[in-house]
Amino acid sequence: MATKKTSMFTLTERITISAATTDTTATIDLGSYVDVGDRQALQIHSVDFIYQGGTANQSAPVAMGSSGLLTVQVTDLNRGGLVFANDRALVASGNLEYDTDAFLTNVTDLYPDNFGKGSDDGRFVVNDALYCTARTSQLAAAAEINVTIRVNCSIVTLSQKDFMSIAIQSTAADN
């Protein structure tokens, strides 16, 4: 299906949330990695989220200030905000729940953003960008929350049929 052109490497992007209940977005440009003419795609092996406060040594729950939920998603189409789990454009998602009453923190990630154990497993992306969206329900006064997105990926060459199949599916997901 795919021929590897590179070993695995990591792309990172950081979103800084400075307002509660507002979508904060960032884009990971894939223009240098995806080439339609050569049927070159990005194979995503896994996506990790790191939650921090306004400084590198502050935790995100401290920056939230009170009980709340922080949600982050990565999509391969620009949906303009958070999407439902059945959206074909969804690549990865994660939540951080914080409960100040019981002093509990729970990180959940129900979407399988680890795409397999072997080097042949992964999600193939033929679009020219990944779109990152984050939102928190709570934010302490003058605080910020940083979410770092780490995408572990490699560049592959797909057969013509496989490239067309992925491109058609991506176009269909746009409607």
Give me the secondary-structure topology.
Elements: E1 2-4, E2 9-17, E3 24-29, E4 40-52, H1 60-64, E5 68-75, E6 90-99, E7 104-108, E8 123-125, E9 129-136, E10 145-158, H2 160-173
Antiparallel strand pairs: 1-10, 2-10, 3-9, 4-8, 4-10, 5-6, 5-9, 6-7
Description:
- There is one protein chain.
- The chain is mainly β and 175 residues long.
- It is built from two helices and ten strands, in the order E-E-E-E-H-E-E-E-E-E-E-H.
- It has helices spanning 60-64, 160-173; strands spanning 2-4, 9-17, 24-29, 40-52, 68-75, 90-99, 104-108, 123-125, 129-136, 145-158.
- Strands 1, 2, 4, 8 and 10 form a five-stranded antiparallel sheet that branches. Strands 3-9-5-6-7 form a five-stranded antiparallel sheet, with no helix packed on it.
- A hairpin with a 4-residue loop joins strand 6 and strand 7 (104-108).
- The longest helix is centred in the last third of the chain and has 14 residues, at 160-173.
- It is elongated.
